[in-house]
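# nightly structure sweep
# worker-07 picked up a monomer target from the shared queue
# config: single-sequence mode, recycle default, output format = C-alpha coordinates
# input follows
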Amino acid sequence: MHDYVTENNKRIIFLLMIFVILGCILRVNKLGEKSLWIDELVVISNAANIVDIKSFFSHTRNDDLPKFYSLLFKYWVLLGTSESTMRMLSVIFGCLQILTIYALSRLYYDTKTSLCAALLTATSPFLILYDREIRMYSLFALLSSLSTYYFIRSLRERRIVLWFGYAIMNILNTYTHYYALLVIAVQWLFIIIRFRDYKIILKPWLAANAFIILAFSIRMTALIQDVAFFAPWAMQRERFPFIYGKHFVDIFYIIFSFSVGQTILPWNLVAIVTYISVIVCFILALRKGITIALDNLYLLLLLIVPVVIGIIFRIAMPRYFIFLAPIYYILVAKGMFIAPRKIVAVIIVVVTFGWGYGIANYYNDKQFHMMAHVDPWRDVAMFLKNNITEGEEIVGIGLGVTSLRYYYDNTLSDYSENKLIDKVSELAKSNKKRIWLIYTHQEEYENYLKSCKLLDNDYNIIVDMKWSPDPDYEIKKIFFRKTFVPYRIVARLYERKY
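# output follows
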Protein backbone atom coordinates (compact mmCIF):
# COMPACT_ATOMS: atom_id res chain seq x y z
CA MET A 1 0.00 0.00 0.00
CA HIS A 2 2.84 2.36 0.89
CA ASP A 3 4.53 1.71 -2.46
CA TYR A 4 1.27 2.50 -4.28
CA VAL A 5 0.87 5.80 -2.41
CA THR A 6 4.46 6.75 -3.13
CA GLU A 7 4.09 5.90 -6.81
CA ASN A 8 0.85 7.84 -7.00
CA ASN A 9 2.49 10.89 -5.41
CA LYS A 10 5.31 10.68 -7.93
CA ARG A 11 2.80 10.72 -10.78
CA ILE A 12 1.04 13.74 -9.32
CA ILE A 13 4.32 15.62 -8.90
CA PHE A 14 5.36 14.66 -12.42
CA LEU A 15 2.07 15.93 -13.91
CA LEU A 16 2.25 19.15 -11.90
CA MET A 17 5.77 19.78 -13.15
CA ILE A 18 4.57 19.19 -16.73
CA PHE A 19 1.76 21.72 -16.19
CA VAL A 20 4.17 24.27 -14.69
CA ILE A 21 6.58 23.82 -17.60
CA LEU A 22 3.71 24.18 -20.08
CA GLY A 23 2.45 27.29 -18.29
CA CYS A 24 5.96 28.72 -18.23
CA ILE A 25 6.47 28.10 -21.95
CA LEU A 26 3.17 29.81 -22.79
CA ARG A 27 4.10 32.79 -20.66
CA VAL A 28 7.73 33.10 -21.78
CA ASN A 29 7.15 32.63 -25.51
CA LYS A 30 7.85 35.94 -27.33
CA LEU A 31 7.86 37.64 -23.92
CA GLY A 32 9.86 40.65 -25.05
CA GLU A 33 8.22 41.03 -28.45
CA LYS A 34 5.44 43.44 -27.50
CA SER A 35 6.26 47.04 -26.70
CA LEU A 36 5.74 48.39 -23.20
CA TRP A 37 2.40 50.09 -22.82
CA ILE A 38 1.38 52.88 -20.48
CA ASP A 39 0.28 50.72 -17.51
CA GLU A 40 3.62 48.93 -17.53
CA LEU A 41 5.46 52.23 -17.66
CA VAL A 42 3.51 53.36 -14.59
CA VAL A 43 5.02 50.46 -12.61
CA ILE A 44 8.51 51.27 -13.91
CA SER A 45 8.01 54.89 -12.83
CA ASN A 46 6.61 53.90 -9.43
CA ALA A 47 9.54 51.59 -8.79
CA ALA A 48 12.03 54.31 -9.64
CA ASN A 49 10.24 56.73 -7.30
CA ILE A 50 10.45 54.41 -4.28
CA VAL A 51 13.49 55.88 -2.58
CA ASP A 52 12.59 55.41 1.10
CA ILE A 53 9.87 54.06 3.41
CA LYS A 54 7.81 57.23 3.15
CA SER A 55 7.65 57.07 -0.65
CA PHE A 56 6.60 53.42 -0.47
CA PHE A 57 3.61 54.19 1.75
CA SER A 58 2.58 57.44 0.04
CA HIS A 59 0.12 58.11 -2.76
CA THR A 60 1.45 58.22 -6.33
CA ARG A 61 0.00 60.84 -8.64
CA ASN A 62 -0.05 58.71 -11.77
CA ASP A 63 -1.47 55.56 -10.16
CA ASP A 64 -4.20 54.56 -7.73
CA LEU A 65 -2.86 51.27 -6.33
CA PRO A 66 -0.47 50.17 -3.57
CA LYS A 67 3.19 49.56 -4.35
CA PHE A 68 4.27 46.12 -3.13
CA TYR A 69 4.71 44.85 -6.69
CA SER A 70 6.57 48.04 -7.62
CA LEU A 71 8.91 47.49 -4.65
CA LEU A 72 9.68 43.94 -5.77
CA PHE A 73 10.14 45.16 -9.32
CA LYS A 74 12.60 47.84 -8.18
CA TYR A 75 15.05 45.12 -7.15
CA TRP A 76 14.10 42.67 -9.90
CA VAL A 77 15.00 45.19 -12.60
CA LEU A 78 18.60 45.07 -11.39
CA LEU A 79 18.80 41.85 -13.42
CA GLY A 80 18.18 43.77 -16.64
CA THR A 81 15.93 46.30 -18.37
CA SER A 82 14.92 44.41 -21.49
CA GLU A 83 11.18 43.87 -21.92
CA SER A 84 11.51 40.11 -21.44
CA THR A 85 13.61 40.41 -18.27
CA MET A 86 11.31 42.99 -16.68
CA ARG A 87 8.19 40.93 -17.45
CA MET A 88 9.69 37.72 -16.09
CA LEU A 89 8.78 38.70 -12.52
CA SER A 90 5.08 38.47 -13.35
CA VAL A 91 5.67 35.19 -15.18
CA ILE A 92 7.17 33.66 -12.03
CA PHE A 93 4.09 34.60 -9.99
CA GLY A 94 1.83 33.20 -12.71
CA CYS A 95 3.69 29.87 -12.69
CA LEU A 96 3.56 29.65 -8.89
CA GLN A 97 -0.20 30.12 -9.17
CA ILE A 98 -0.46 26.76 -10.96
CA LEU A 99 0.91 24.92 -7.92
CA THR A 100 -1.12 27.03 -5.51
CA ILE A 101 -4.40 26.26 -7.28
CA TYR A 102 -3.68 22.55 -7.14
CA ALA A 103 -3.10 22.79 -3.38
CA LEU A 104 -6.19 24.95 -2.89
CA SER A 105 -8.39 22.67 -4.97
CA ARG A 106 -7.23 19.65 -2.95
CA LEU A 107 -8.78 21.24 0.12
CA TYR A 108 -12.13 20.73 -1.58
CA TYR A 109 -11.90 18.11 -4.31
CA ASP A 110 -10.05 14.98 -5.40
CA THR A 111 -6.71 14.71 -7.20
CA LYS A 112 -8.21 14.49 -10.72
CA THR A 113 -10.21 17.67 -10.29
CA SER A 114 -7.27 19.48 -8.74
CA LEU A 115 -4.89 18.48 -11.53
CA CYS A 116 -7.45 19.64 -14.07
CA ALA A 117 -7.77 22.99 -12.24
CA ALA A 118 -3.99 23.38 -12.32
CA LEU A 119 -3.96 22.64 -16.07
CA LEU A 120 -6.71 25.18 -16.72
CA THR A 121 -4.75 27.76 -14.71
CA ALA A 122 -1.59 26.97 -16.70
CA THR A 123 -3.28 27.39 -20.09
CA SER A 124 -5.89 30.10 -19.44
CA PRO A 125 -5.68 32.79 -22.17
CA PHE A 126 -7.00 35.32 -19.65
CA LEU A 127 -4.28 34.62 -17.08
CA ILE A 128 -1.55 34.37 -19.72
CA LEU A 129 -2.38 37.90 -20.90
CA TYR A 130 -1.82 39.46 -17.47
CA ASP A 131 0.91 37.07 -16.32
CA ARG A 132 3.11 38.58 -19.06
CA GLU A 133 2.77 42.23 -18.07
CA ILE A 134 4.79 44.46 -15.77
CA ARG A 135 1.76 44.85 -13.53
CA MET A 136 0.64 43.54 -10.17
CA TYR A 137 -2.13 41.25 -11.46
CA SER A 138 -0.33 37.90 -11.36
CA LEU A 139 0.98 38.65 -7.86
CA PHE A 140 -2.50 39.78 -6.77
CA ALA A 141 -4.08 36.54 -8.03
CA LEU A 142 -1.38 34.44 -6.34
CA LEU A 143 -1.67 36.17 -2.97
CA SER A 144 -5.47 36.00 -3.09
CA SER A 145 -5.33 32.24 -3.70
CA LEU A 146 -2.83 31.86 -0.84
CA SER A 147 -5.11 33.93 1.40
CA THR A 148 -7.98 31.54 0.69
CA TYR A 149 -5.71 28.52 1.13
CA TYR A 150 -4.53 29.65 4.57
CA PHE A 151 -8.04 30.77 5.52
CA ILE A 152 -9.61 27.35 4.87
CA ARG A 153 -6.75 25.45 6.46
CA SER A 154 -6.88 27.72 9.53
CA LEU A 155 -10.60 27.08 9.94
CA ARG A 156 -10.11 23.33 9.71
CA GLU A 157 -6.83 22.80 11.58
CA ARG A 158 -6.88 25.80 13.96
CA ARG A 159 -3.10 26.11 14.18
CA ILE A 160 -1.40 29.39 15.11
CA VAL A 161 1.18 29.06 12.33
CA LEU A 162 -1.62 28.88 9.74
CA TRP A 163 -3.32 31.99 11.15
CA PHE A 164 0.02 33.76 10.95
CA GLY A 165 0.41 32.71 7.31
CA TYR A 166 -3.15 33.88 6.65
CA ALA A 167 -2.41 37.31 8.13
CA ILE A 168 0.84 37.73 6.18
CA MET A 169 -0.78 36.80 2.86
CA ASN A 170 -3.58 39.29 3.38
CA ILE A 171 -1.22 42.08 4.43
CA LEU A 172 0.92 41.59 1.34
CA ASN A 173 -2.22 41.39 -0.77
CA THR A 174 -3.64 44.67 0.53
CA TYR A 175 -0.32 46.26 -0.39
CA THR A 176 -0.63 44.81 -3.89
CA HIS A 177 -4.20 45.69 -4.90
CA TYR A 178 -7.10 47.27 -3.03
CA TYR A 179 -9.48 44.56 -4.23
CA ALA A 180 -7.72 42.36 -1.68
CA LEU A 181 -10.09 44.06 0.76
CA LEU A 182 -12.93 42.27 -1.03
CA VAL A 183 -11.27 38.92 -0.32
CA ILE A 184 -11.10 39.81 3.36
CA ALA A 185 -14.70 41.07 3.30
CA VAL A 186 -15.90 37.72 1.93
CA GLN A 187 -14.00 35.92 4.69
CA TRP A 188 -15.71 38.10 7.28
CA LEU A 189 -19.10 37.48 5.67
CA PHE A 190 -18.53 33.74 5.69
CA ILE A 191 -17.56 33.75 9.38
CA ILE A 192 -20.66 35.80 10.23
CA ILE A 193 -22.95 33.45 8.29
CA ARG A 194 -21.37 30.34 9.84
CA PHE A 195 -20.74 31.88 13.25
CA ARG A 196 -22.16 28.90 15.18
CA ASP A 197 -19.72 26.51 13.53
CA TYR A 198 -16.66 28.73 13.83
CA LYS A 199 -17.12 30.73 17.04
CA ILE A 200 -14.49 28.50 18.61
CA ILE A 201 -11.82 30.13 16.42
CA LEU A 202 -13.03 33.68 17.13
CA LYS A 203 -9.97 34.74 19.18
CA PRO A 204 -7.24 33.75 16.69
CA TRP A 205 -9.42 35.00 13.84
CA LEU A 206 -9.84 38.44 15.42
CA ALA A 207 -6.16 38.57 16.38
CA ALA A 208 -5.11 37.82 12.80
CA ASN A 209 -7.47 40.47 11.43
CA ALA A 210 -6.33 43.03 13.99
CA PHE A 211 -2.79 42.41 12.75
CA ILE A 212 -3.97 42.93 9.14
CA ILE A 213 -5.85 46.13 9.99
CA LEU A 214 -2.91 47.54 11.93
CA ALA A 215 -0.51 46.86 9.05
CA PHE A 216 -2.89 48.30 6.46
CA SER A 217 -3.69 51.41 8.53
CA ILE A 218 -0.17 52.72 7.85
CA ARG A 219 -1.29 53.41 4.29
CA MET A 220 -4.78 54.70 5.13
CA THR A 221 -3.98 58.30 4.13
CA ALA A 222 -2.66 57.11 0.78
CA LEU A 223 -5.81 54.99 0.32
CA ILE A 224 -8.01 58.07 0.69
CA GLN A 225 -5.88 59.94 -1.85
CA ASP A 226 -5.91 56.98 -4.23
CA VAL A 227 -9.71 56.71 -4.06
CA ALA A 228 -10.05 60.46 -4.65
CA PHE A 229 -7.70 60.18 -7.64
CA PHE A 230 -9.66 57.36 -9.26
CA ALA A 231 -13.19 58.41 -8.21
CA PRO A 232 -14.86 55.48 -9.98
CA TRP A 233 -18.40 56.57 -9.12
CA ALA A 234 -17.83 59.86 -10.96
CA MET A 235 -16.71 58.18 -14.17
CA GLN A 236 -19.09 57.72 -17.06
CA ARG A 237 -19.85 54.04 -17.61
CA GLU A 238 -19.51 52.35 -20.96
CA ARG A 239 -22.56 50.22 -21.69
CA PHE A 240 -24.02 48.13 -24.41
CA PRO A 241 -26.87 50.19 -25.93
CA PHE A 242 -29.46 47.41 -26.03
CA ILE A 243 -29.53 46.99 -22.24
CA TYR A 244 -28.46 50.45 -21.19
CA GLY A 245 -28.63 50.93 -17.46
CA LYS A 246 -28.23 47.24 -16.62
CA HIS A 247 -25.29 45.40 -15.10
CA PHE A 248 -25.75 42.06 -16.81
CA VAL A 249 -23.27 42.82 -19.56
CA ASP A 250 -20.56 43.62 -17.01
CA ILE A 251 -21.11 40.24 -15.36
CA PHE A 252 -21.25 38.50 -18.73
CA TYR A 253 -18.02 40.13 -19.84
CA ILE A 254 -16.14 39.16 -16.67
CA ILE A 255 -17.25 35.52 -16.98
CA PHE A 256 -16.57 35.61 -20.72
CA SER A 257 -13.03 36.84 -20.08
CA PHE A 258 -12.41 34.02 -17.61
CA SER A 259 -13.92 31.44 -19.99
CA VAL A 260 -12.47 32.55 -23.32
CA GLY A 261 -9.90 35.26 -22.70
CA GLN A 262 -9.73 38.74 -24.17
CA THR A 263 -8.29 37.95 -27.59
CA ILE A 264 -11.46 36.50 -29.14
CA LEU A 265 -14.33 38.90 -29.66
CA PRO A 266 -17.70 37.89 -28.16
CA TRP A 267 -19.46 37.54 -31.53
CA ASN A 268 -16.84 35.12 -32.87
CA LEU A 269 -18.31 31.60 -33.33
CA VAL A 270 -15.25 30.04 -31.65
CA ALA A 271 -15.79 32.33 -28.65
CA ILE A 272 -19.47 31.45 -28.39
CA VAL A 273 -18.93 27.68 -28.52
CA THR A 274 -15.99 27.85 -26.09
CA TYR A 275 -17.91 30.05 -23.68
CA ILE A 276 -20.92 27.72 -23.66
CA SER A 277 -18.70 24.68 -23.06
CA VAL A 278 -16.88 26.25 -20.11
CA ILE A 279 -20.00 27.73 -18.54
CA VAL A 280 -21.78 24.36 -18.74
CA CYS A 281 -19.03 22.83 -16.60
CA PHE A 282 -19.24 25.72 -14.17
CA ILE A 283 -23.02 25.38 -13.82
CA LEU A 284 -22.72 21.61 -13.28
CA ALA A 285 -20.26 22.25 -10.46
CA LEU A 286 -22.61 24.78 -8.87
CA ARG A 287 -25.52 22.36 -9.02
CA LYS A 288 -23.77 19.28 -7.69
CA GLY A 289 -20.44 20.34 -6.27
CA ILE A 290 -21.32 23.37 -4.14
CA THR A 291 -23.49 23.27 -1.05
CA ILE A 292 -23.86 25.52 1.95
CA ALA A 293 -22.49 22.77 4.15
CA LEU A 294 -19.15 23.20 5.90
CA ASP A 295 -16.83 25.66 4.10
CA ASN A 296 -18.00 25.04 0.52
CA LEU A 297 -20.16 28.14 0.77
CA TYR A 298 -17.00 30.24 0.88
CA LEU A 299 -16.10 29.55 -2.76
CA LEU A 300 -19.56 30.62 -3.89
CA LEU A 301 -19.43 33.82 -1.85
CA LEU A 302 -15.94 34.58 -3.14
CA LEU A 303 -17.12 34.36 -6.74
CA ILE A 304 -20.29 36.41 -6.30
CA VAL A 305 -19.74 39.12 -3.67
CA PRO A 306 -16.66 40.89 -5.14
CA VAL A 307 -18.24 41.07 -8.61
CA VAL A 308 -21.46 42.57 -7.24
CA ILE A 309 -19.58 45.14 -5.14
CA GLY A 310 -17.23 45.99 -7.99
CA ILE A 311 -20.08 46.57 -10.44
CA ILE A 312 -21.99 48.70 -7.93
CA PHE A 313 -18.92 50.91 -7.54
CA ARG A 314 -18.47 50.99 -11.32
CA ILE A 315 -15.15 49.18 -11.44
CA ALA A 316 -15.97 46.20 -13.65
CA MET A 317 -12.71 45.71 -15.56
CA PRO A 318 -12.08 41.94 -15.78
CA ARG A 319 -8.42 42.31 -14.83
CA TYR A 320 -9.45 43.72 -11.44
CA PHE A 321 -11.24 40.41 -10.82
CA ILE A 322 -8.30 38.26 -11.90
CA PHE A 323 -8.11 36.84 -8.36
CA LEU A 324 -11.43 35.07 -9.02
CA ALA A 325 -10.39 33.37 -12.25
CA PRO A 326 -8.44 30.49 -10.60
CA ILE A 327 -11.39 29.83 -8.26
CA TYR A 328 -13.62 29.74 -11.32
CA TYR A 329 -11.29 27.18 -12.93
CA ILE A 330 -11.49 24.94 -9.86
CA LEU A 331 -15.26 24.76 -10.27
CA VAL A 332 -15.02 24.32 -14.04
CA ALA A 333 -12.66 21.40 -13.44
CA LYS A 334 -15.12 19.90 -10.98
CA GLY A 335 -17.92 20.25 -13.53
CA MET A 336 -15.89 18.42 -16.16
CA PHE A 337 -15.86 15.28 -14.00
CA ILE A 338 -19.57 15.52 -13.23
CA ALA A 339 -20.68 15.61 -16.86
CA PRO A 340 -21.09 12.34 -18.86
CA ARG A 341 -17.89 11.11 -20.48
CA LYS A 342 -18.96 11.78 -24.07
CA ILE A 343 -19.91 15.35 -23.21
CA VAL A 344 -16.64 15.81 -21.32
CA ALA A 345 -14.71 14.63 -24.37
CA VAL A 346 -16.47 17.18 -26.57
CA ILE A 347 -15.90 19.94 -24.00
CA ILE A 348 -12.19 19.12 -23.75
CA VAL A 349 -11.82 19.31 -27.54
CA VAL A 350 -13.75 22.59 -27.75
CA VAL A 351 -11.88 24.26 -24.88
CA THR A 352 -8.51 23.07 -26.18
CA PHE A 353 -9.25 24.50 -29.62
CA GLY A 354 -10.87 27.69 -28.29
CA TRP A 355 -8.14 28.49 -25.80
CA GLY A 356 -5.46 27.58 -28.33
CA TYR A 357 -7.11 29.92 -30.81
CA GLY A 358 -7.16 32.72 -28.21
CA ILE A 359 -3.51 32.19 -27.28
CA ALA A 360 -2.51 32.19 -30.96
CA ASN A 361 -4.41 35.47 -31.37
CA TYR A 362 -2.44 36.88 -28.45
CA TYR A 363 0.91 36.02 -29.97
CA ASN A 364 -0.21 37.44 -33.34
CA ASP A 365 -1.92 40.59 -31.99
CA LYS A 366 -5.36 39.69 -33.37
CA GLN A 367 -8.87 40.48 -32.12
CA PHE A 368 -7.86 42.20 -28.89
CA HIS A 369 -10.73 43.84 -27.05
CA MET A 370 -8.36 46.53 -25.79
CA MET A 371 -5.48 46.95 -28.23
CA ALA A 372 -3.29 49.10 -25.97
CA HIS A 373 -1.60 45.82 -25.03
CA VAL A 374 -0.26 45.38 -28.55
CA ASP A 375 0.52 48.84 -29.91
CA PRO A 376 3.95 48.63 -31.65
CA TRP A 377 5.69 51.57 -29.98
CA ARG A 378 9.21 50.37 -30.79
CA ASP A 379 8.35 50.31 -34.51
CA VAL A 380 6.80 53.77 -34.32
CA ALA A 381 9.82 55.17 -32.51
CA MET A 382 12.20 53.65 -35.03
CA PHE A 383 10.21 55.16 -37.91
CA LEU A 384 10.29 58.60 -36.32
CA LYS A 385 14.02 58.39 -35.62
CA ASN A 386 14.64 57.56 -39.27
CA ASN A 387 12.31 60.19 -40.73
CA ILE A 388 12.12 63.26 -38.49
CA THR A 389 14.67 65.92 -39.34
CA GLU A 390 15.85 68.96 -37.41
CA GLY A 391 13.41 71.86 -37.36
CA GLU A 392 10.25 69.79 -37.78
CA GLU A 393 7.68 70.27 -35.03
CA ILE A 394 6.17 67.18 -33.34
CA VAL A 395 2.68 67.31 -31.86
CA GLY A 396 1.56 64.16 -30.05
CA ILE A 397 -1.94 63.47 -28.81
CA GLY A 398 -3.21 60.89 -26.35
CA LEU A 399 -2.01 58.59 -23.58
CA GLY A 400 0.08 56.61 -26.04
CA VAL A 401 2.62 59.42 -26.14
CA THR A 402 3.86 58.14 -22.77
CA SER A 403 4.94 54.86 -24.40
CA LEU A 404 6.29 56.66 -27.45
CA ARG A 405 8.30 58.93 -25.17
CA TYR A 406 9.94 55.88 -23.58
CA TYR A 407 11.15 54.52 -26.91
CA TYR A 408 11.70 57.74 -28.84
CA ASP A 409 12.43 60.85 -26.79
CA ASN A 410 11.76 61.64 -23.15
CA THR A 411 11.21 65.31 -24.03
CA LEU A 412 8.33 64.59 -26.43
CA SER A 413 5.28 66.65 -25.40
CA ASP A 414 1.67 65.49 -25.60
CA TYR A 415 -1.54 67.48 -25.85
CA SER A 416 -5.22 66.78 -25.37
CA GLU A 417 -8.60 68.43 -25.93
CA ASN A 418 -8.40 72.21 -26.33
CA LYS A 419 -4.64 72.26 -25.69
CA LEU A 420 -4.12 70.30 -28.89
CA ILE A 421 -6.23 72.67 -30.97
CA ASP A 422 -4.48 75.67 -29.45
CA LYS A 423 -1.05 74.19 -30.16
CA VAL A 424 -1.88 73.33 -33.77
CA SER A 425 -3.37 76.80 -34.34
CA GLU A 426 -0.28 78.39 -32.85
CA LEU A 427 2.02 76.43 -35.16
CA ALA A 428 -0.10 77.16 -38.24
CA LYS A 429 -0.07 80.89 -37.50
CA SER A 430 3.69 80.84 -36.97
CA ASN A 431 4.18 79.64 -40.57
CA LYS A 432 5.91 76.49 -39.38
CA LYS A 433 7.12 74.71 -42.53
CA ARG A 434 6.63 71.12 -41.40
CA ILE A 435 4.50 69.66 -38.60
CA TRP A 436 4.28 66.04 -37.47
CA LEU A 437 0.87 65.16 -36.01
CA ILE A 438 1.00 61.86 -34.11
CA TYR A 439 -2.29 60.34 -32.98
CA THR A 440 -1.98 57.58 -30.35
CA HIS A 441 -5.21 57.18 -28.38
CA GLN A 442 -8.76 56.48 -29.52
CA GLU A 443 -10.34 58.65 -26.85
CA GLU A 444 -8.75 61.67 -28.53
CA TYR A 445 -9.93 60.77 -32.04
CA GLU A 446 -12.36 63.68 -32.37
CA ASN A 447 -9.66 66.19 -31.41
CA TYR A 448 -7.30 64.55 -33.87
CA LEU A 449 -9.84 65.00 -36.68
CA LYS A 450 -10.33 68.65 -35.72
CA SER A 451 -6.56 69.18 -35.84
CA CYS A 452 -6.34 67.52 -39.27
CA LYS A 453 -9.10 69.76 -40.57
CA LEU A 454 -7.35 72.83 -39.18
CA LEU A 455 -4.08 71.93 -40.91
CA ASP A 456 -5.69 70.94 -44.22
CA ASN A 457 -6.23 74.62 -45.12
CA ASP A 458 -2.56 75.55 -45.34
CA TYR A 459 -0.68 72.24 -45.41
CA ASN A 460 -0.29 69.16 -47.60
CA ILE A 461 0.12 65.64 -46.20
CA ILE A 462 3.42 64.26 -47.48
CA VAL A 463 3.77 61.30 -45.08
CA ASP A 464 0.86 59.27 -43.73
CA MET A 465 1.93 56.21 -41.71
CA LYS A 466 -0.50 53.95 -39.82
CA TRP A 467 -0.02 51.11 -37.32
CA SER A 468 -2.28 48.57 -35.57
CA PRO A 469 -5.29 48.33 -37.90
CA ASP A 470 -8.48 47.19 -36.18
CA PRO A 471 -10.78 45.43 -38.68
CA ASP A 472 -13.55 45.14 -36.08
CA TYR A 473 -13.68 48.80 -35.11
CA GLU A 474 -17.13 49.44 -36.62
CA ILE A 475 -18.88 46.57 -34.85
CA LYS A 476 -17.02 47.37 -31.62
CA LYS A 477 -18.45 50.89 -31.71
CA ILE A 478 -21.97 49.47 -31.99
CA PHE A 479 -21.71 46.89 -29.22
CA PHE A 480 -19.36 48.55 -26.73
CA ARG A 481 -20.82 52.06 -27.06
CA LYS A 482 -17.31 53.45 -27.23
CA THR A 483 -15.08 55.14 -29.80
CA PHE A 484 -13.05 52.69 -31.87
CA VAL A 485 -10.98 53.80 -34.83
CA PRO A 486 -9.55 52.07 -37.93
CA TYR A 487 -5.92 52.51 -36.80
CA ARG A 488 -4.53 52.77 -33.30
CA ILE A 489 -1.55 54.92 -34.27
CA VAL A 490 -1.14 57.46 -37.08
CA ALA A 491 1.89 59.64 -37.87
CA ARG A 492 1.30 62.41 -40.42
CA LEU A 493 3.78 64.90 -41.76
CA TYR A 494 2.22 68.17 -42.93
CA GLU A 495 4.17 70.51 -45.22
CA ARG A 496 3.11 74.11 -45.78
CA LYS A 497 1.63 74.75 -49.25
CA TYR A 498 3.35 78.09 -49.83
